[in-house]
Amino acid sequence: MLKWVFILMMVPGMAMAQETVRLKVLSFNIWYGGDQVNFAKVIEAIRLADADLVGLQEPDGKTLEIAAAAGYPYADTRRHILSKFPLFDSALGVTTGTEAPLYSIAGLDADAVHAWALVAPGRVVAVANTHLTSDPYGPELIRDGATLDAVLAGEAEVRMPEAQALVDGLGPVAARGVPVILTGDFNTPSHLDWTTREPFAVAWPVSTLIAAAGFADTFRVAHPDAVAVPGLTWTPGRPWPMVPADETLDRIDHVYAANAGVVGSVLLGEIGNPAVALSVTPFPSDHRGVLSTLDVVPVAAPALITIEPRPVVLGDSFLIRAQVPAGDWTAVIVNAGSDWTDGGLTGIADVALNDRPTVRLSTIGMATGEYDVVLIADGVEAARHRFSVIPADRRATVTVTGPVVPGGDIALTFAGAPGFKLDWIGVFRAGEVSVYDYLGFAYTGARHQGALVFPAAELYEDLTPGTYEVRLMLDDHYQTMAVTGFTVAAP
Fold first, then answer.
1. Where exactly does CATH 2.60.40.2840 map onto the chain?
2. Gap between the Cα atoms of 13 and 22, Å rounded
3. What is residue 99's predicted lDDT score, i.e. its pLDDT?
4. Cis peptide before 302, with omega less than 30 degrees from 0?
5. pLDDT for residue 92 is more than 90
6. Which strands form 278-280's sheet, in the order they lie side by side?
7. Which of 10, 256, 300, 361 is most buried when burial is the number of CB atoms within 10 A of its CB?
8. Are 204 and 151 in contact (CB under 8 A)?
9. pLDDT tens column, 371-409
10. For helices 63-70 and 39-49, angle between their N-to-C axes, nearest 10 degrees
């Protein structure tokens, strides 16, 4: 009886099969790591919202720090999601494609945009989080005299491909009747808001596309009158109330949901604003947060397995977390891509899920590198999750692996990266002081290690003979994790 009570208590807001679960979901752009005003106030704001699921934008490598400080036991660093519920990847857990994905799904394969949140015993919802490219920003173009055709052309070129990637990845999941939640800073207004605006109404295509895919704009469902309740999320100021005189103000942060009932939606923002329901002072971001309350009927979970933490440090222990539809489960650790039937390095067999959904193991006998944890149910492989073991000193490295000539690509490898959504590699002149002055960049695919060919065509200028550096950088931010020099030889 005590074991069963423990299982019930460890999942907040839970319901039994086919019952409705009420979820609070927060989308929050915290403004470049939350350091621009007061990081402690970011934590206070998240705690005040008390959401079950939080989609963060611009955490700049601080997702795990924020999760720990705000009291969230689960975090997805490839999607920047905090959760009160166990999270599982919807695929292998690493980027497997060779093509660089669009910014909206950076770090993910196109068919693995969402994570699974286990919101009730054996039952899940899909959750995703995004950030679309900011420039050119449509309302500013209109402010500066652009025509409607020019504004829509900018949307079509920049943000529509990013939105299409989200719809392509999440639409099929929603079409199966799965509750799907998408949070994000979309950097574009809603077609539901610009129906009577001057100098012209705009049927903003990103929000139109997402709505056509079956996703409800939860704030606008809760507040249908865009004139009476505009719900502006951009901007409370930098910091409030310092808003430039010519600033455009709009609603660009959203919680979208498919196959969910909308109970309500409010803004998290600055004190003294009557449009804000939850406030801290000083408010720490240049975006207001959106907190929506949803009723969902979670679906039966597939077989799922994950390793926590990500990555694993050599010498430390790690946790295997499993979910199987029925029966016992077995997990085996193998070298990445290996067949589990050939034997494993370590593991555990025949575990009763209602007794032990998690098992902690050791890295003893393992080396640094990539591994898979294989979930075995009824004698067959049911799921697989890839993870990395990194050196105990956590030292990251980046290496140029071949000669570089003028006009040539740059081949390199990296290791020991934290695997955040937007870790990146920049090319700099040797000894460049300003981290802003890179000559080109490429995202790592949220991988801990791997190889990358930096195409010469993606550099902002041709590299002439001389000395340069490649730097491994943290999560769309400017903290250097590793650097190595290279020489461009004369032809």
1. 397-488
2. 7
3. 78
4. no
5. yes
6. 74-76, 81-83, 53-57, 21-29, 289-296, 261-270, 278-280
7. 256
8. no
9. 999 999 888 999 999 999 999 998 999 999 999 999 999
10. 60
d(CA 166, CA 108): 11
> Per-residue pLDDT tens for 41-82?
999 999 999 999 999 999 999 999 999 999 999 999 999 999
Bridge-based pairing of strands 410-415 and 450-454 is: antiparallel
Cα separation, 71 vs 47, whole angstroms: 8
Reported as a pLDDT band with limits 50, 70 and 90, residue 241 is low
Fold of 2-300: Deoxyribonuclease I; Chain A (3.60.10)
**For position 1, what pLDDT does the model report?**
27
Architecture field, domain 397-488:
Sandwich (2.60)
169, 417, 98, 430: CA torsion to nearest 10: 130
The mean pLDDT of 270-292, rounded to a whole number, is: 96
Residues in the chain, overall count: 491
**What does the alpha-carbon distance between residue 37 and residue 42 come to, in Å, rounded to a whole number?**
9
- Measured CA to CA in angstroms, residue 383 lies from 48, 322, 323, 352, 463 at distances of 37, 10, 10, 17, 45
Placement of tokens 């173009």 in the chain: 141
293 vs 462: which has the higher pLDDT: 293
The pLDDT assigned to 240 comes to: 64
Residues 6+ apart with CB under 8 A from 369: 335, 336, 388, 389, 449
Contacts within 8 Å (CB) and 24+ apart, 226-232: 226/192, 226/193, 226/195, 227/196, 229/275, 230/193, 230/275, 231/267, 231/275, 231/290, 232/275, 232/288
Query: Both tokens of residue 112?
Result: 């693995």
Give CA 93 to chain center in angstroms.
Answer: 12
Q: Give the residue range(s) of CATH 3.60.10.10 domains in the chain.
A: 2-300
Lowest mean pLDDT among 77-86, 137-146, 176-185, 348-357: 348-357
Q: Where in the chain is the domain with CATH 2.60.40.1930?
A: 304-390
- 304-390: CATH topology is Immunoglobulin-like (2.60.40)
Find all residues with CB under 8 Å of 488, minimum gap 6, and list them: 404, 405, 406, 463, 464, 465, 466, 467, 468
For residue 239, pLDDT beyond 80: no
